[in-house]
């Protein structure tokens, strides 16, 4: 990777991260805490929605967020021709 | 010997036999094997190991009860979101980059990226945090032996120590990792079987995460009838500000705990480190989404079977668990009925009972009860061994090899690592038998301390090349000192002050973390920038492919290689590379 490619790779990594972290904050701090009373007005399958986000939904979304990250980063690596990963353990 | 004891014994002997076999099969002879399993663990196995390492005796035994009983229900969400949300931060912000850096310990990264004084602070923090935790695990082992097998706590702890000694000293990280994979399997099966059975009983749906919804309206109603707030009502115990701060402290603390972060060094590659985080959270989520369901089901069962019951007509399980002191009943008004209400009424219920007694409350057969005991032991032992490895590697690698005897041969380092591990096990066992009274409180606070100390300097160290050694050290100290001061001031066993804005001591770590970030950034503006070669090294760890500088840095000639590559003009005079 030359310098231009590197900064492009890093820029796209940062953009992916920002989107995922925004969702991370929205489901936990947003839906699970700040807007919990509002969402609790809606009941789905017996769960007041805000309560569901606080005890189930946010955890589910966290797993999905990491899955999306892993998947998108694999694609990004492929696009930039990274097919060989660092496997060494360096120690002195 | 009762049926339950017999089955418990069968499962304990069986699982311990498996752990010992794995230990023998994965013994190691190199420091890389001992500290990080030679960085060769496939992602799903590493994920299961991380999950077992992460889920302690407290997660397994107490979590459901903490959510359902200590709180009205909603308040316990801080633990559910906090102890899982941290993995998103780990996966996105730390795991791939630390794996690329490829060292043995977290102080290794802090010391190499910043300075030797930062390394020392990191070593001390890592050791203190790990010892606090490990004491709780050993106490948990003793507890399970005592309650399920009638063995004394001391004998139980010693037995646990012998098992851990066997696989941790012999196999180091490699033995620990593969044993943890087995331990995860045991603990998740032991957790899910009763969860599914209770869900079927109460809701007719075999998926506890869904069946849970069917009983919430009824549970809300029951709680209101007894004078509690509704189970699902928000902010009845913890206000919004503290909900946010405590959740954040647990999340950022999770991403700053040395025994969790170090697990990403054991992954095969940068890509495997990312996948390890995914597998880990998936495995953790299986238990963490079941726990609130078990809590709610058990609370419904509990209120249903106990509240208002005649004292001489209590169910058998109630008597079993009140015999060992997990439930105490005091018929204060002498009406012969159990009055349960806000603050407990005439009942004092230990949180641990929700999981330990769940199979009996639901009327499940004795083998299931025995399996739950084996699961609780697996949870305690797996977490203990991961923590002991951090202590051992901090002493042997970061202190002995890096500071005392840099010329030590590999065999010598390995010997010191094993001796440190053995000594740590002895100390942990002692703490398990004689737990200091404040352990439970300190464990909760350890997250705040980890959030206020490690998290900011690790993230800035990777994402901001110009973070300076002095900036990071100042931030580390500022975050740590303010958080500790606030905790000492507000926690009831010490100062019992009221605090600022009513911020709970468990939530202050979030504030300490912000202080750390601000101080690190501000001081970094005014102090000497990292060398160009170091900045280039930080640049390189952002890309997952192979690269020259990381290897050159490890071999001690970062500056020369950087000069050859044309990154800097010439190596600075004097001692080049890392010290």
Keywords for this structure?
heterodimer; A: 92 residues; mainly alpha; two-stranded antiparallel sheet; 2 strands; B: 579 residues; Sodium/glucose cotransporter; 1% strand; globular; disordered C terminus; Na/solute_symporter_VC_2705 (chain B)
Any overview of this molecule?
Chain A: Residues 7-83 form the Sodium symporter small subunit domain. Chain A: InterPro entries: Na_symporter_ssu (IPR019886). Chain A: It holds the Pfam family DUF4212. Chain A: Keywords: Membrane, Transmembrane, Transmembrane helix. The complex is a heterodimer of chains A (92) and B (579). Chain A has 92 residues and is mainly alpha-helical. Chain A has helices at residues 3-34, 36-39, 49-79; strands at 43-44, 47-48. Chain A is 73% helix and 4% strand. Chain A has a two-stranded antiparallel ribbon. Chain A is elongated and about 55 Å long. Chain B has a single domain (3-28, 43-526), classed as Sodium/glucose cotransporter (Up-down Bundle). In chain B, 72% of the residues lie in helices and 1% in strands. Chain B is built from 23 helices and two strands. Chain B has helices spanning 3-25, 31-36, 43-54, 57-70, 77-101, 106-113, 116-149, 153-203, 208-225, 240-254, 258-261, 270-306, 316-323, 353-356, 358-361, 366-404, 410-433, 439-463, 469-490, 508-526, 532-540, 548-555, 558-564, and strands spanning 327-329, 347-349. Chain B starts with a helix and ends in a 15-residue tail after the last helix. The chains are: A mainly alpha (92), B mainly alpha (579). At the A-B interface, helix 1, strand 2 and helix 3 of A face helix 2, helix 5, helix 9, helix 10 and helix 12 of B.
Stretches with pLDDT under 50, minimum 5 residues of chain A: none
Count structural domains of chain B.
Answer: 1
Largest Cβ-defined interface: A-B, 51 and 73 residues
Main beta sheet of chain A: strand number and arrangement?
2 strands, antiparallel
Give the name of the CATH superfamily of chain B.
Sodium/glucose cotransporter
CATH architecture term of chain B: Up-down Bundle
Number of helical segments of chain A? 3
**Radius of gyration of chain A, in angstroms, nearest whole number:** 19 Å
